[in-house]
Amino acid sequence: MTEDTGSTRNTDTPEPVQQLLHHVEFGSGTPVVMLHGYTIDHRLLLPLEPVFAARRGWRRLYVDLPGSGRSPRLAGPVTAEAMGEAVLRFVDKVIGDEPFAVVGISYGGQLARHLIAERGWQVLGTALIAPLVKPTGERVLPERQVLTRDEALLASLDPADREVFEGIALYQDDAGWSTFRDHVLPGIRAHHREDAAALLKAYLLTQTPESRFGTHDGTHLVVTGRQDHMVGWRDQLELMEHYPRATYAVIDGAGHNVHLDQPDAVHGLVGNWLDTLAAHRR
Fold it and tell me: What residue segments make up the domains of the chain, in order of their start?
């Protein structure tokens, strides 16, 4: 498990509904809200930090969603709407009415789009990495592939760790395990199991975010993995009509954790997105 560095804000109050979501913060300048996926925590997105560290003027807020990492559980029913409301409360408390950008991966991609629907005037743009778009039964998915597999490594792992690693990893070798161990597994171990099961029954917003705003002219990026067997890459193309200033990329040799499988390609795309945002910000 990796150590968190940088400042953290974690308010330990007895009532979860009043408690600020735990987050790790780096830098100063325009806020960027970083939203992770289902049953993970903020550590999944920390590998993007070098892209931001190479550029000045960005305040990165890596958030643990409710019931994940070190954040409190939701006080009421665990639904997509409740998750979205918790993120909105976080934005209101930590950012206020300042313009901000969002990075959302997987389930966090749906929440990023929810922020556009609720705070579109404030959102400069989003980077959506392997974003969730459709429910399980309606997704167009590629065939499950494993590009590298080290049987000796897999045999050496704890059975529970091996099961989750084999279930998602495209590269089942030492390098793939190393990134999974440091950035995926800690969140899997830290999330609240009952809340995750409850969310799975109501994990999609009742209205798609785009149906609530039509189009958004901010600077947007959508990155998908060609071998992503979990949310796929075809369904995300439907988002393009709602984001006229969006860049779409499907990266070969990448599964659901596309930024871990192909870091150089994703870093380049995210860096270009940030530079475009900065140019428009001036």
Answer: 7-143+191-281
pLDDT of residue 282: 64
Q: What is the pLDDT of residue 19?
A: 72
C-alpha span between 280 and 270 (Å, rounded): 15
Q: How far is CA 112 from CA 14, 154, 164, in A?
A: 28, 35, 26
pLDDT for res 280: 85
**Taking a C-beta distance cutoff of 8 angstroms, is the pair 116, 209 a contact?**
yes
Let me know: does 100 contact 118? Beta carbons within 8 Å. no
Residue pair 63/32 in contact by the 8 Å Cβ criterion? no
What count of other Cβ atoms lies within 10 Å of the Cβ of residue 130?
29
38: left (phi over 0), alpha (psi -120 to 50) or beta: beta
User: Topology of 7-143+191-281 in CATH?
Assistant: Rossmann fold (3.40.50)
Pairing mode of beta strands 100-105, 148-149: unpaired
Q: What angle do CA 33, 165, 126 make, to 5 degrees?
A: 20
pLDDT along the chain (282 residues), means of 10: 34 46 97 97 98 97 97 96 97 97 98 98 98 96 98 98 98 98 97 96 96 97 98 98 98 98 98 96 68
pTM over 0.90: yes
Tell me the C-alpha distance between 217 and 181, whole Å.
Answer: 38
